[in-house]
Amino acid sequence: xxxxxxxxxxxxxxxxxxxxxxxxxxxxxxxxxxxxxxxxxxxxxxxxxxxxxxxxxxxxxxxxxxxxxxxxxxxxxxxxxxxxxxxxxxxxxxxxxxxxxxxxxxxxxxxxxxxxxxxxxxxxxxxxxxxxxxxxxxxxxxxxxxxxxxxxxxxxxxxxxxxxxxxxxxxxxxxxxxxxxxxxxxxxxxxxxxxxxxxxxxxxxxxxxxxxxxxxxxxxxxxxxxxxxxxxxxxxxxxxxxxxxxxxxxxxxxxxxxxxxxxxxxxxxxxxxxxxxxxxxxxxxxxxxxxxxxxxxxxxxxxxxxxxxxxxxxxxxxxxxxxxxxxxxxxxxxxxxxxxxxxxxxxxxxxxxxxxxxxxxxxxxxxxxxxxxxxxxxxxxxxxxxxxxxxxxxxxxxxxxxxxxxxxxxxxxxxxxxxxxxxxxxxxxxxxxxxxxxxxx
Length: 441
Prior knowledge:
By secondary structure, the chain is an alpha/beta fold. It folds into 2 domains: 5-208 and 402-440, Aldehyde Dehydrogenase, Chain A, domain 1 (3-Layer(aba) Sandwich), CATH 3.40.605.10; 213-394, Aldehyde Dehydrogenase, Chain A, domain 2. The protein has 13 helices and 16 strands. It has helices at residues 5-16, 23-52, 57-78, 121-127, 141-154, 167-174, 187-198, 222-234, 254-266, 283-295, 346-354, 369-378, 414-419, and strands spanning 81-83, 95-102, 105-109, 131-135, 160-162, 180-184, 204-207, 213-216, 246-249, 299-303, 318-322, 337-342, 361-365, 383-386, 407-408, 421-428.
């Protein structure tokens, strides 16, 4: 049975030596990452294609932009803040600061669906002056192995290491003490990780998913909604945590929506030959989705052309008209199946969403300002899009994270950097602080 104690101890010793603290060392690590992406990005993109049968260059590009942002903003994000002294303090001799410091050894456990993008928090963790151990998903085997190869070429494991393996390796890693753990995946595994972290009082960031609702009201642009739904289900074959999981719409709008979805999919041509349409990650998940479809009591409203292929992991998209208690509503679908539930309007749609776990994303298509306002204020979710799907998660300067069952904490850009940074209050009395330059704290 593997033990990762020596690796974690090595990183903790390196961190405690102060080797990661200076901005120069952090910039060096970021430039190493940048060189890795520039020189080995094609290998990583090809590995993503082997795992998911889709273009991986978008993930490579997003990773490169995250590195560039950290290099540009590092000094600003890291700078100590001098605060005014007053009240109990003597403004003539006392100094009050907020000093930003790294937290220590960080473990990042990333999933298979977007294996490179979901590993990006390692960029901000290194920028913040931490050491990092990355555990990629074994389901995206080619990407995990490629990641380990390219990282080993440029990094000593005392600063940044990739650990490959499956459940046992993850379990063994979690038995060690870390200073922060980031996990992207599902709530069931998140509970295991949170329990393991609690033994060491380790803070966690959990980026999960959920059954993301999409409300389409009678005044909506139905063609736009259908186009966005098709785009979302085409992206990674619906295997994305912010994917629209189900639709709530009226009996008046439903037939128009189904017809528009069919037309929008048909514009994509033969999906088996379409490079934008990914494959199911493995046969187990293929079987899971097939089992869901076999258990539904709903009506198959539409299904794309093409033969299902378990070996090739090709599953054509489908649309079902269902009731609220259908099998398709029990768990996150995470695939190209779309259930549609009939509601009589915004009131029933809001009640339906409120009665369920808080999703990672919630969507509405409407031209009505009041209905839109109510949707934003009367539902709880990680994020909201109005007349769009998923785009909010690709904006760089906003937080990304869930709430309740869909996650704990937030990441993305500076929010990730702050996640891996402790803001330490420093009070210096007796005039000593006047002799310490702010940039030396």
